[in-house]
Amino acid sequence: MTVRRWGIAVRALLRDRRGRFLILQRTANSGWAPGAWEIPGGKLDAGETPDEGLRRELEEETGLTVTLDGFEGALPFEMPKVHVVTLVFRARVKSGRFRLSDEHDAFRWVSRSEMARADLSPQVAPFVQTFIRKS
Hints:
By secondary structure, the chain is α+β, with helices and mostly antiparallel strands. It has helices spanning 50-62, 112-117, 125-134; strands spanning 5-15, 21-26, 37-38, 41-43, 64-78, 82-96, 104-110.
């Protein structure tokens, strides 16, 4: 039996000043879920707290500085070599000029109903659907 390690990731339900959510499209040559849409975030670096890691990831992926408004929940996800627990926070844009990282091909600011219809990655889709239904 192969023992898989555990990892922690962080993601944000990031809203702009108009209340729209940011979704990002993974690159077509991504090793996992190419072309799928996702909410921004990523893996923690060694020694980072979840809030530090999420702020760093959002800066790297979007160029934006954010304010974290609270914890929304956690979701488990199985990857081929690791069990991942993703912590999801509510966040809003504080400052900065948007720029898309090379990890993504496109971005969209969407309403809650548009986010519900987006082709979201299998990692975040169930969580986002639950968030939309309960809100």
